[in-house]
UniProtKB/TrEMBL annotation:
Catalytic subunit of the glycosylphosphatidylinositol-mannosyltransferase I complex which catalyzes the transfer of the first mannose, via an alpha-1,4 bond from a dolichol-phosphate-mannose (Dol-P-Man) to the glucosaminyl acyl phosphatidylinositol (GlcN-(acyl)PI) intermediate to generate alpha-D-Man-(1->4)-alpha-D-GlcN-(1->6)-(1-radyl,2-acyl-sn-glycero-3-phospho)-2-acyl-inositol and participates in the sixth step of the glycosylphosphatidylinositol-anchor biosynthesis. One of its GO terms (molecular function) is alpha-1,4-mannosyltransferase activity. Keywords: Endoplasmic reticulum, Glycosyltransferase, GPI-anchor biosynthesis, Membrane, Transferase, Transmembrane, Transmembrane helix. The lineage of its organism: Eukaryota, Viridiplantae, Chlorophyta, Mamiellophyceae, Mamiellales. This is GPI mannosyltransferase 1. The chain crosses the membrane at residues 21-40, 95-113, 125-143, 155-179, 248-266, 389-408, 414-438. It comes from the Eukaryota. The keyword Transferase applies. Its main location: endoplasmic reticulum. GO terms for cellular component: endoplasmic reticulum membrane; glycosylphosphatidylinositol-mannosyltransferase I complex.
Amino acid sequence: MRSHALNSAHSSRYISCKLAPVVFQIAAILRALLIMWSVVQDAYCELPFTDLDYFVFTDAARYMVVGISPYERFTYRYSPVVAASLIPNVLSQPFFGKLCFVVGDFMTGWLVLEILSFCGSSQRTKVASVICWLFNPFTLAMSTRGSFESAVSTAMLSILLLILSGNTFLACAVLGLVIHLRIYPVIYLIPLCCFLCLDCDVPDAHSWDRRIEGSKDRRANYFTVAIKSSCHIFSAIASITFTRRLELLALCMSSISIWLLCFLFFGSEFQSETYSYHLGRKDVRHNFSPLFYVEYIAPRIPFRAMYTFTPVLPQMVTVCLVGFKFAKDLPVCLLLQTIGFVALNKVSTAQYFVWYMSLIPTALPSGIVQCSGCKSLASLAGQDLHRAAALRFWLSAQFLWLIVAYHVEFCGTCAFLLLWFASVVFLCAHAWVGTHLMTARTKFMR
């Protein structure tokens, strides 16, 4: 019996090892077909397959080729680095950028394998986690439609792998580059600082699901907890300043040098379009956030200035609390922070979901595979796919929002109040998923 079990386990590992390359090959074929289909749909259908931002990127790259600022292209709100990297779209093939974003998908999948291998996860878990990323409908759609979020996902997982492997200097340098491309990774400074200052141990295969140490004194009053948290904050800042000087230098040099270079070439227009616009961005239509309705009726409400800054408070509080609470469990902390940030952001679009979906395979490997095969994230709480109420609610809420948004955007139906209600439901779904994951992790803490 024992020899049979050993042979079965060996056979399972052998199949998993052979399966990994096949998974990447199938994912490559599927993405190639989607890119070819995008050419057909863009040419013959009224509704194009390619994302509008991809056309904006290409136009900005075309402006740079002829020596014009990319910000002359209306609605280009990104770093010049993005437009410059897509110059081959103009000089050679228009789908060059999509191929680069698809490569970013595969790089992210490879990083998932490396991170889980570094932490000692089983081959079966690694393969299932890669499948979770490569065959995710959002992942497939975003890269083949021309969204560069896969590049950001690749950079974030690279940072995670570098930190877990002890190469913190290079990790901070990459983080500075990512913050230049996208502002939101600045929220990760809190858990990264705490993780480095606390000198947390890298998780292994046996402790991967029990990395967070809960407070032993659960009856401590909130005042005491607040005092202790404040002390930890100041000690973390002091530790970063005095003991992590090289990492701090790498972070500052990489972000400031790129910013300074872009500012010298494109001036204040670069600062305004790349950063200032996103900090005060307003979107009254294609937006999952309930705050779109506030912006829609803002001209008719008193104290409208108050609504500009008030929504930022719960978002920042959530990001900071999660960052300090789960800092010892870095992959899970980044995931929970991103979910909270996206859910409470003033503007929330579908491409933002990729920000936290890329972190799921590394944060919750045991939630992807259990015993007999792939299961949902809710399996962390012992539930099967058909019982994953939180996941079903998230999908249903998004489907409801898309139906209402379609009638508003394409049919001209005046249903903004109903769209606001759908956005509130979707916010509740995000909150349920986030609290569900935190509850599931807390069960391993006890």
